[in-house]
Amino acid sequence: MKQSRVLILDYGSQFTQLIARRLRELQVYSYVLPGETELSRIEEFKPDAIILSGGPSSVYDEHAPQLPKGLMEFQASHQLPLLGVCYGMQLVVQHFGGTISQAHHREYGRMGLKVKGESKLLGDLLNASVSNSFDVWMSHGDETKQVPPGFMVSALSASGATAAIENTDKNIYGLQFHPEVTHSQNGTEILKTFLFQIAKLNPDWTVGNLEENLIAKIREQVPEGRHVICALSGGVDSTVAACLVHRAIGDRLHCFFVDHGLLRYQERERVMKLFTEELHLKVECIDASVRFLSKLAGVSDPEVKRKIIGGEFIAVFEEAAKIIESRLGQLPDYLVQGTLYPDVIESSPAPSGDGSSPTKKHSTTIKSHHNVGGLPKNLRFKLIEPFRDLFKDEVRALGLKLGVPKNFVERHPFPGPGLAIRVLGDVKPEYLETLKLADEIFISEIREAGLYNKIWQAMAIFLPVRTVGVQGDGRTHDHVITLRAVTSVDGMTADWYHFDHQFLAKVSARICNEVRGVGRVVYDISSKPPATIEWE
Ligand code: XMP
């Protein structure tokens, strides 16, 4: 049976990815394409339903993104269920001859909604709840003034604005609010009604069939006799990718792990044990710590440090590829990368105030961090990126299915440049040793207290300043360790974690007592922005 597929056309809303997430949580495969995608690409995708996202534009702006040419004819000829959300609904209204105007009351945030009369999309909620009103999340400056002929208004907002419309003959629905955000009451129920009752889709997107499909695809991509390499970082994505590719092609996969000397306490031993004993992956460890640390000696500018590390990674990678070539008599043709869907989503242009249309992808900012350990473009490998369609939690679920231990798939993120950006300034080997011990105490106490999964990322940072202290009867003049722990969803914004004081007191005492050279421990209470998560 064909898998159900929903196409989401993106008009620049900050919530577009959330629509895709919600649908996948409801086990329906969804994919985001820019709002003005050519019809031929849409036809090729073969959607079973279409959702038009929200967006920051006004439909009457000169450069406002439009529906793809021919989309509505395509929709009509297949009777495809179509849901317009916010700006998406306004595009529908405009297309069918209704009118949009600037709202009298701009509606942002939580707003009361009253369902009105018969509605195929919202009717079930009425039957299920005693009240016909509930709160939804709005974020719009324009509103529907006149509904197009043939459409009915199925809900009004508290201020009397049109909040939902539908035309069941055409199979088209519109919501002025965002059902995808968790603040919208009944949002998931509304999406479920659209997917399962109106579009009659099957909830058939599961990690189980995902694994088989991905393995089949990798086998198809890598012909018999060809070889693949994978550089493991000790992170979740590359590890799960390696396990999957190994399932698909066995020993034609060649993995290596680079120890740059900037890893956490016993990290190399821990991950190598995991790779070989638990995951049964053959991984070669390349000890490159001397070359990384000697290149970094005396360098204190954070950006220069990042560049040096990036360059060294590439050099080590090239050497590893040559070693494998000398053994096989051929350079491997393929390279595995753990790239995720949020990094590749093509976002639609978000028109700026002056009407110009920059085509910045949301991924750009995120990637500039993560490509530090990245690989050179001129290495002539074909890429295998099995997770290009997946979100992080889907990769985690797949990892569990492939036998990657739970405490490993739930690991906090760790930056490519490692502890080099957590020893401020010059990265001296003795500072690294001090930092590793302090970090290990902090993280193990967090685990012990059952807080690890409540925190997005936690770390110790070494400050190369000396402060005066007193230990026993003597004066000390020792370094400072900062503790940092944050909550976040994606690392783009973050808040500091509110530990209770007893916990901080315990960690501070342990670090001062057990780690030589540390005389003071402080806790960082800055959010991002204005600070960043890392100190460099
Ligand atoms: P910041 O410090 O920018 O960090 O708030 C956000 C997230 O990115 C990680 N990070 C990096 N990851 N190379 C990486 O691979 C880098 O150069 C880098 N700098 C920061 C950081 O650990 C956090 O998860």
Architecture overview:
The protein has 17 helices and 18 strands. The protein has three domains: 5-198, Class I glutamine amidotransferase (GATase) domain (Rossmann fold, 3-Layer(aba) Sandwich); 207-409, 3-Layer(aba) Sandwich (Rossmann fold), CATH 3.40.50; 425-523, GMP Synthetase, Chain A, domain 3 (2-Layer Sandwich), CATH 3.30.300. The chain is globular. Mean pLDDT is 89; it is low at 346-373. It has 536 residues and is of the alpha/beta class. Strand 10 (228-232), helix 8 (236-249) and strand 11 form a beta-alpha-beta unit. The strands form three sheets. It has a nine-stranded mixed β-sheet, sandwiched between helices. Strands 12-11-10-13-14 form a five-stranded parallel β-sheet, sandwiched between helices. The chain has helices spanning 16-25, 39-45, 71-78, 87-95, 123-128, 187-198, 207-221, 236-249, 267-278, 289-296, 302-328, 341-344, 363-370, 392-401, 406-409, 429-448, 501-514; strands at 5-10, 29-34, 49-52, 82-85, 99-115, 133-146, 152-157, 162-167, 172-175, 228-232, 253-259, 283-287, 334-336, 382-384, 457-471, 474-487, 495-496, 518-523. The longest helix is centred in the middle third of the chain and has 27 residues, at 302-328. Helix content is 35%, strand content 24%. It starts with a strand and ends in a 13-residue tail after the last strand. Xanthosine-5'-monophosphate (XMP) binds at residues 306, 369-370, 372, 413, 415-417, 457, 491, 528, 532-534.
Q: How would you summarize what this structure contains?
A:
This protein has helices at 16-25, 39-45, 71-78, 87-95, 123-128, 187-198, 207-221, 236-249, 267-278, 289-296, 302-328, 341-344, 363-370, 392-401, 406-409, 429-448, 501-514; strands at residues 5-10, 29-34, 49-52, 82-85, 99-115, 133-146, 152-157, 162-167, 172-175, 228-232, 253-259, 283-287, 334-336, 382-384, 457-471, 474-487, 495-496, 518-523. With 536 residues, the protein is α/β, with parallel strands linked by helices. The protein has a nine-stranded mixed sheet, with helices on both faces. Strands 12-11-10-13-14 form a five-stranded parallel sheet, sandwiched between helices. Strands 15, 16, 17 and 18 form a four-stranded mixed sheet that branches.
